[in-house]
Design brief:
By secondary structure, the protein is α+β, with helices and mostly antiparallel strands. The protein has 9 helices and 5 strands, in the order βββαααβαβααααα. A hairpin with a 2-residue loop joins β2 and β3. The chain is elongated.
Length: 225
């Protein structure tokens, strides 16, 4: 999971990345391997963006520049599926920053980029699918999220993504191991068969009679092959 905070909304207006946060999932479990960096964007932060994340120019003045952490970032995402909420927005900034330091676009450094916003819209068409909306929908607590933060948002996204993608195999996955592949073949002859008693058979027949009387025709259970 990866998230960024920026000095403004439009990369074409020269806005830059000022925070990067990432958390790692392996086997649908969070690891301790995280990425978090504040960056000096080398420009002023728009007032609108400042109201969202609270990261001002004075705080960021002594932080490293993007070029100083680019290798750390690329090592973190290399050969991984990177999940980003509203990926086109973050990718536009990441690609611009990488171009400024002479590196290839972000998607060329990882195995795959998945847009969790697009996934959420496919699952919940016509509904709000912001990160806050997903937290509310899936019961992920975000009461501590008074402002946006790249690492915090990446962690919340991980929880929401796990909830969105939990399927019929989630029990096996959540146990942290796969089913054994060397198990012996299933022997159905070893199953215990419990025959119905005479009283149970009589009760079953009585139910079929009542269904037949109510419906006016024989139940399908009386059909012979």
């Amino acid at each position: 999971m990866l998230d960024t905070e920026t000095t403004g909304l439009e990369v074409r207006d020269g806005h830059r990345i000022l925070e990067i946060g990432g958390v790692e999932l392996i086997g649908r479990r969070l690891t301790e391997r995280r990425l978090h960096r504040y960056l000096n964007p080398q420009r002023e932060v728009d007032s609108g963006a400042l109201a969202v994340h609270g990261l001002g120019s004075e705080f960021l003045a002594d932080k490293p520049r993007f070029g100083d952490v680019v290798e750390e970032l690329l090592d973190y995402v290399r050969d991984a599926e990177v999940i980003i909420h509203n990926a086109p927005f973050d990718l536009s900034f990441l690609d611009r920053e990488l171009a400024l330091v002479g590196r290839a676009s972000f998607s060329e450094h990882c195995a795959l980029v998945t847009d969790s916003l697009r996934l959420a819209r496919d699952l919940h068409p016509g509904k709000r699918n912001s990160l806050d909306a997903l937290c509310e929908r899936y019961g992920v607590s975000n009461r501590h999220r008074t402002m946006h933060g790249a690492l915090l948002d990446a962690g919340l996204l991980a929880e929401c993504y796990l909830a969105m993608t939990r399927g019929q195999d989630s029990l096996v996955i959540d146990l942290g191991h796969a089913l054994p592949t060397d198990a012996p073949p299933f022997d159905s002859t070893r199953l215990a068969v419990l025959a119905a008693s005479a009283e149970e058979l009589a009760a079953h027949q009585a139910i079929l009679v009542s269904i037949e009387q109510e419906c006016g025709h024989a139940p399908v259970w009386r059909a012979t092959r």
